[in-house]
Amino acid sequence: MDPIVVIGAGLSGLAAAAHLARHGRRVVVLEAGRAVGGCCSTEDVDGFRFNNGALYVATPALLRHAFARLDIDFDACVRLRPIAVPQLAVLDSGTRVFTTTAEGAWIEGADAAARTARYRAELGRLQQAWRPLYRRLIGRVLPAESSLPRALFELWRHLPLLSGTVADVLRRHVSDPEARAAAGAITLYTGLAPEHTPATQIVGLIALLEEGFFLPEGGMGRIPQAIAERLRSDGGELRLNAAASRIEFHGARLRGVRLADGGFQAARAVIATPSALAVVARLLDPAIVPPRLRRRARRAPLSHRAISIQLGIEPAAAAPAFAVNHVPLLEDQHRFHLPAERTARWFGYTSPSTVLADLAPPRAAVVELFAPAPPRRLAGETTRAEVDAIAGRYVEALCREQPLRVVRRRVLGPQDFAGQRHLHEGALYGLSPAATPTDYFPRRSGLPGLYLAGQTTYPGYGVPTALLSGIHAAEAAMREAP
User: Under 8 Å CB-to-CB from 158, ≥6 apart: which residues?
Assistant: First the structure.
């Protein structure tokens, strides 16, 4: 019998394949790159281990749930190291706001003791207000098959909390303008200013307060490696350097997947885990794309594009926190996402080797920055010269903050994210975090035997939701293509 073919060995593809293999299905994974993990992987460059996307683990309870669905003992194969000081915000006044837990946060600057006490109390009240919704989201909504009616049924009591923006939430709960800016900075990973970020994205801050942030020993790549090991042990076939060029149908019947090298893999079902936008644009004959998919692809609001700057530095000066963000006040944080025309004034970086020293050689460290790419441009519209110039300004700002010597540098722009990471038009999350539930693509494509998983098909952010997306697509395929 022909296998079920999974396109992509990122988190969702590996999870889908491992779930299928565990249930005795013959499965073949086609991965265009030379390694597994996609946007949750690591790469060694002259002794420095850099991230290829995901920077840390949030919601570890949901991650353990996803591994349990795959019948993998998470703690036996992935060891999480807690990040003691996850976030520091540096304000223009010189005030420094450290956000750890509600009880442990602190402020350095004028009137520090009183402001610290107030910030802790307000974070505690914010956490308490959102805790029931957060636990229901993690415990009942995200683990289940994506369904707007189900989500509304589970969360209807909490709908008043979900109205408005992140800025609205923070203004209600945090009175100190600089502390409010620090809390807002934790949500800047969305690529949106708090004034334009839906209130739902405050779960990034609540996740920090409820469960903390973590790094897997060995780096983020340890997570997909553990799943790939289980896939192989259960008989799954994993092919690297095997890029798919077309999902082929004969009439209404799925035939299989044509490879870029001219080869062909027959399939009784296909689970496509690149962006659903890329599936519509590149992997399907335009004549057979269902109208519903075509409409969603045409109106899809894409997330932001960025420039990744990864540095190996000497000496290994101790960073004050895992993530350091130089930010303006909340009302001006949209400027954080505009490329600096001269030396960067507002920027953020992470220092993973302060948590895991073995990610860098002795007396050296890893520092990673995401700088904003020129706005309102597609991946191919930003030149390499522009990328390098912007990266230079942000490295200059980092070196101005602390004396260091850059010994290794790796810079990736939107074209690299599109070509090497297979992110549609270089958009980091596929759909924008401001997308509505009706913008997301359905699990079932509308073509018999073709299922969608991965980017843009599952609401939520982070590693666990990518895994669950693959698991749910695998379950649909098993039900309908036994």
Answer: 132, 133, 136
Contact 144, 65 (CB under 8 A): no
Alpha-helix runs per DSSP H in 23-59: none
Task: Read off the pLDDT of each residue in 397-422 and give the average, rounded to a whole number.
Answer: 92
Work out the number of other CB atoms within 10 angstroms of the CB of residue 30: 26
Query: What would the two tokens of residue 276 be?
Result: 């659903």
**Across residues 350-372, what is the average pLDDT?**
95
- Residue 308 binned pLDDT confidence (cut-offs 50, 70, 90): very high
SS (H, E, C) 263-286: CEEECCEEEECCCHHHHHHHHCCH
pLDDT of residue 462: 81
pLDDT at 189: 92
Geometric angle at alpha carbon 406, from 405 and 411, rounded to 5° = 160
Closest to 65 in 3D by CA, of 403, 475, 463: 463
Report the alpha-carbon distance of residue 277 to residue 251 in Å, rounded.
Answer: 22
Report whether pLDDT(482) > 80: no
What single DSSP character describes residue 71? T
Q: Which two tokens stand for residue 271?
A: 């689970």
SS3 category, 136: helix
Residue with tokens 């502390």: 179
Residues facing 408 on adjacent strands: 312
Beta bridge partners of 452: 272
CB 220 within 8 A of CB 41: yes
The pLDDT value given to residue 459: 57
Contact indicator for 303, 433 with CB cutoff of 8 Å: yes
Per-chain mean pLDDT for the chain: 94
Q: What is the per-residue pLDDT for 76? A: 96
| Contact call for residues 192 and 330 (beta carbons, < 8 A) | no
Residue type, 401: E
Rounded distance between C-alpha atoms, residue 366 and residue 457, angstroms: 32
Beta bridge partners of 325: 89, 348
Q: How far apart are CA 423 and CA 455, in angstroms?
A: 9
Which amino acid is it at 178? E
**In which residue are the tokens 């060694």 written?**
44
CB 214 within 8 A of CB 62: no
For residue range 229-240, list pLDDT tens digits in order: 999 999 999 999
Does the predicted model carry a pTM greater than 0.85? yes
Strand partners, 253: 250
DSSP state of 187: T
Six-digit token pair at 40?
Answer: 């949750």
Pairing of strands 365-372, 96-99: unpaired
Separation between Cα atoms, residue 233 and residue 189, nearest integer Å? 36
Residue whose tokens read 């303008």: 177
Contact indicator for 349, 185 with CB cutoff of 8 Å = no
